[in-house]
Amino acid sequence: LQRRQAALRDQPGQLRDGRLVGLWANIGRPAEARLAREYGAEGIGLFRTEFLFLDRSAPPDEDEQYTAYCAVLDELPGKPVVIRTLDIGGDKPLPYLPLSPEANPFLGVRGLRLSMQRPDLFQIQLRALLRAAFRGDIWIMLPMVATPADLAWARAQLVEAAAALAAAGVDHRPDPPLGVMIETPAAAVLADQLARDAAFFSIGSNDLAQYTLAVDRGHPTLAARYPSNDSSVWRMIDLAARAAQQAGIPIGICGELGGEPDAAPALVGLGLHELSMAPARIPAVKERLLQTSWAEAQAAAARALAGWREA
Ligand code: PEP
Ligand code: MG
């Protein structure tokens, strides 16, 4: 069994008939990058950077962030590492970041919207990311994008951060891939417009389901009736996948749905290039894909769009 597991770990994610599917890992701390490698992750599809900001009285400075990002690169040499900018909101108050109380924090200042409110913090994070991108294959990912104007704002911020580093003579890569999470219905619906200026998409199915179905993602009783594999969510994913294909940019998923073996064939059938998940879920998803042909994946996608709960 162990030999089978080691052999599985060392082969790339692919369908039975050879179509390659990147199997990447989600991590929340640099130390988890090692686990990702041990489970055979071909990249990091989501590095949540919230850990740097939580449980402390002052925000992390540029060097501390740079060190954390480089630690992940060092663990997975040569592999792509998608780092998400700070994704926090009114539901998780930070002492150094006073936010006005909100009646609906999930519909309020969270993700990129918080960065818009605190561009000083965003600049520090972007500078750290651009410096780390000089050392390895870093992709920068924006959470909670709703409109093309959100992306344009972030793009201008990135240009500003690169200019500051250039002026100071600091080693950096000015133009790493800048991508967006598709986790609001607006982003899915306007994916064709976002794709003009985004280098990649990643489906945030946890929030995309929450906002599409209008059901709190942690709701104790409604999840069974409104699951994140509802056909409404699949249709949102399909919109983004078609836009990505049209624009020729890669699209992946980093929400929980991406780590479900039962969802994997349909995700690939819709045209996703990469599935990112908790490291321990990689082997089961890999096994499932190895049993699936491209024709079967496409059939699974068609069923998902039609509504696969026939009962
Ligand atoms: C998501 O929303 O699917 C996602 C991956 O981000 P998070 O779970 O951190 O909100
Ligand atoms: Mg999210």
TrEMBL record:
<keyword id="KW-0479">Metal-binding</keyword>
<feature type="binding site">
    <location>
        <begin position="206"/>
        <end position="207"/>
    </location>
    <ligand>
        <name>phosphoenolpyruvate</name>
    </ligand>
</feature>
<dbReference type="GO" id="GO:0016301">
    <property type="term" value="F:kinase activity"/>
</dbReference>
<keyword id="KW-0808">Transferase</keyword>
<comment type="function">
    <text>General (non sugar-specific) component of the phosphoenolpyruvate-dependent sugar phosphotransferase system (sugar PTS). This major carbohydrate active-transport system catalyzes the phosphorylation of incoming sugar substrates concomitantly with their translocation across the cell membrane. Enzyme I transfers the phosphoryl group from phosphoenolpyruvate (PEP) to the phosphoryl carrier protein (HPr).</text>
</comment>
<keyword id="KW-0762">Sugar transport</keyword>
<keyword id="KW-0963">Cytoplasm</keyword>
<feature type="binding site">
    <location>
        <position position="84"/>
    </location>
    <ligand>
        <name>phosphoenolpyruvate</name>
    </ligand>
</feature>
<feature type="binding site">
    <location>
        <position position="48"/>
    </location>
    <ligand>
        <name>phosphoenolpyruvate</name>
    </ligand>
</feature>
<feature type="binding site">
    <location>
        <position position="207"/>
    </location>
    <ligand>
        <name>Mg(2+)</name>
    </ligand>
</feature>
<dbReference type="GO" id="GO:0005737">
    <property type="term" value="C:cytoplasm"/>
</dbReference>
<feature type="active site" description="Proton donor">
    <location>
        <position position="254"/>
    </location>
</feature>
<protein>
    <recommendedName>
        <fullName>Phosphoenolpyruvate-protein phosphotransferase</fullName>
        <ecNumber>2.7.3.9</ecNumber>
    </recommendedName>
</protein>
<keyword id="KW-0460">Magnesium</keyword>
<dbReference type="GO" id="GO:0009401">
    <property type="term" value="P:phosphoenolpyruvate-dependent sugar phosphotransferase system"/>
</dbReference>
<comment type="similarity">
    <text>Belongs to the PEP-utilizing enzyme family.</text>
</comment>
<keyword id="KW-0813">Transport</keyword>
<keyword id="KW-0598">Phosphotransferase system</keyword>
<dbReference type="GO" id="GO:0046872">
    <property type="term" value="F:metal ion binding"/>
</dbReference>
<feature type="domain" description="PEP-utilising enzyme C-terminal">
    <location>
        <begin position="3"/>
        <end position="292"/>
    </location>
</feature>
<feature type="binding site">
    <location>
        <position position="183"/>
    </location>
    <ligand>
        <name>Mg(2+)</name>
    </ligand>
</feature>
<dbReference type="GO" id="GO:0008965">
    <property type="term" value="F:phosphoenolpyruvate-protein phosphotransferase activity"/>
</dbReference>
<keyword id="KW-0418">Kinase</keyword>
<feature type="binding site">
    <location>
        <position position="217"/>
    </location>
    <ligand>
        <name>phosphoenolpyruvate</name>
    </ligand>
</feature>
